Amino acid sequence: MAESENLRAEVDQLKDDLANLRADIGDLTSAVRDLGSEKMEGWRESAEEELRRGRESVRRGASAARDRARHATDEMEAGIGNHPYGSLLAAFGAGFIISKLLEGSGRR
């Protein structure tokens, strides 16, 4: 009977050990899940920051392109205003050449 009691005590101890092991595995799983969530949150924040930087870079580039286009337009208007007859002659000449090129390609 003492042997039966020892066996029962060992089985009870094994049950307790298994319960503790299950609890430890649950804690470990939770810790790994939390760590993964923290990593994902860090990656998400990093991606959002890179996206913000990219958007800002595009905005700066678009603004610079707009400024260059305005400057070129202003220079062209000033050049036409300073030399109206030369500009008119140049436009007429370009139109004449283009019309002759198009006329010549239509005959072929």
Order of helices and strands: HH
Percentage of residues in helical conformation? over 70%
Q: For the CA atoms, what is the radius of gyration?
A: 41 Å
Separation of the first and last Cα atoms: 117 Å
Secondary structure: number of strands: 0
**Uncertain segments of ≥5 residues (pLDDT<50)?**
none
Estimate the strand proportion. under 5%
Largest sheet: none
Briefly note the structural class of the backbone: mainly alpha
Average pLDDT number: 88
Q: What's the number of structural domains?
A: 1
Question: What is the fold's blueprint, element by element?
Answer:
Blueprint: H1 2-82, H2 84-107
Helix pairs in contact: 1-2
Structural descriptors:
mainly alpha; single chain; 108 residues; 2 helices; rod-shaped
Provide a descriptive summary of the structure in words.
This protein has 108 residues and is mostly helical. The protein has one domain. It has 2 helices and no strands. α1 packs across α2. The N and C termini lie far apart (117 Å). The mean pLDDT is 88.
Short description:
The protein is mainly α and 108 residues long. It is built from 2 helices and no strands.
